[in-house]
């Protein structure tokens, strides 16, 4: 590792083979090389790097594991320094009396889960990327996951953040207490801001005791709308599952081809429902779920043991990777609608797919109305790709009409920036821009994200920043 520019005591590289590794994320956004990559080991290192960037008007791009789906950790300007948190991976404190942990931003979500599990506790936010994604990235994207239906998203668990501001100052916001009403909550503003307001260097999170019992149910529906209708009915029956996932017919077919797990072929939709709590409560809730679903024509199976349960979750987790085997280009979005509009949204997605002739594979966190919409366009065809993007606009429009949003958990980054004004009012955007200017007057922190600019995708060859300059 070597570097054209250096700051004593901080590992920095400007070597092309290093830069390439930090030029893309998990989205379809076009890669773009940073000027340098730095691996800070402390808040003090981050502060020195930011001061350097501020002085030389360079951009700083914080980066976790690069699993983001919106291009938010890809540089959009020349002369950017990527800050990788791979060397800030310590779990600093597990405080079971206050039900809190303190971690560095580079800690992988699953590593924290494992440590807590040994002690009988858990950290509820569980993005499907948890085996790789970092807590710093989860905080910056306000990540959710299957458990959000019962336990909420990352923001609900962030208690305190140590951050480095755009002038290099280190500030701690939030605190150890559950309750606090003093001025605006800067902590909550920073959560979900995609690295555009401040850089997180330490995180205090709330954790919970593990529930005593778990039960997983699989419900097969022969009718798509019935599956969508079952979701609000389960909640109205006073059952809040720990997870309530939805998989549509095309997703079942894809996953069974890629990794057969015995999901029933020929069904229109599946609900994967997990309940937790005391054993007697879990059994009672399972009965209620079964009667709601049966009335709507659902066939209910209960996973008999840990292995059966794991097999079902394996199928759910295999969905994203399985899509690669369709041999098509995936445009994936994550709309969210109010739960009572889920049946409408699922029907509309099917209608849009049939009308356009473009396969749409849908699955997601039905319990909170979050649907992963995968628009599968033909490869190597710019026309098909453009038709796919037109379909994205229609899908977003449908979600907004249904009272929902264009993103439930992946955030805006660069890819969704052109669509933000479909949802946010001009006044809201003005206030957001003013907040950005207050935090970051020189716009050095992750510039070009959230606020509109042209999307850059692998197909958009003309608008790409060249990979090697
Ligand atoms: C297979 C797969 C499944 C997924 N499932 C889910 C899911 O269920 N739920 C969900 O919410 N998301 C999901 N995602 C998206 C992604 O995993 C999340 O957005 C995740 O939170 C990103 O974490 P990361 O560490 O990879 O961050 P990156 O992708 O590296 O960065 C994401 C954003 O965080 C910022 N950032 C990173 N670290 C810091 C820091 N220390 N300070 C300030 N800003 C920072 C970056 O600048 C960028 O804006 C999935 C992705 C994949 C590939």
Explain what this protein looks like in three dimensions:
The protein has 469 residues and is α+β, with helices and mostly antiparallel strands. Helices cover 33% and strands 21% of the residues. Among the domains are: 11-86 and 441-461, 2-Layer Sandwich (Uridine Diphospho-n-acetylenolpyruvylglucosamine Reductase, domain 2); 213-321, Alpha-Beta Plaits (2-Layer Sandwich). The protein has helices at residues 16-21, 43-56, 109-118, 135-141, 148-151, 186-190, 224-236, 249-258, 279-295, 306-317, 319-323, 342-356, 382-401, 420-423, 426-439, and strands spanning 11-13, 36-39, 59-63, 80-84, 91-95, 100-103, 121-122, 158-164, 170-174, 199-206, 208-209, 213-221, 243-248, 269-277, 299-302, 329-336, 360-365, 370-377. The strands form four sheets. Strands 15-12-14-13-17-18-16 form a seven-stranded antiparallel sheet, sandwiched between helices. Helix 7 crosses helix 9, helix 7 (224-236) runs antiparallel to helix 12 and helix 12 (342-356) packs antiparallel against helix 13 (382-401). The protein is globular, with a radius of gyration of 22 Å. It starts with 10 loop residues before the first strand and ends in a 30-residue tail after the last helix. Residues 460-469 have low confidence and may be disordered.
List keywords for this structure.
469 residues, alpha+beta, Uridine Diphospho-n-acetylenolpyruvylglucosamine Reductase, domain 2, Alpha-Beta Plaits, 7-stranded antiparallel sheet, 5-stranded antiparallel sheet, 18 strands, 33% helix, 21% strand, disordered C terminus, binds flavin-adenine dinucleotide
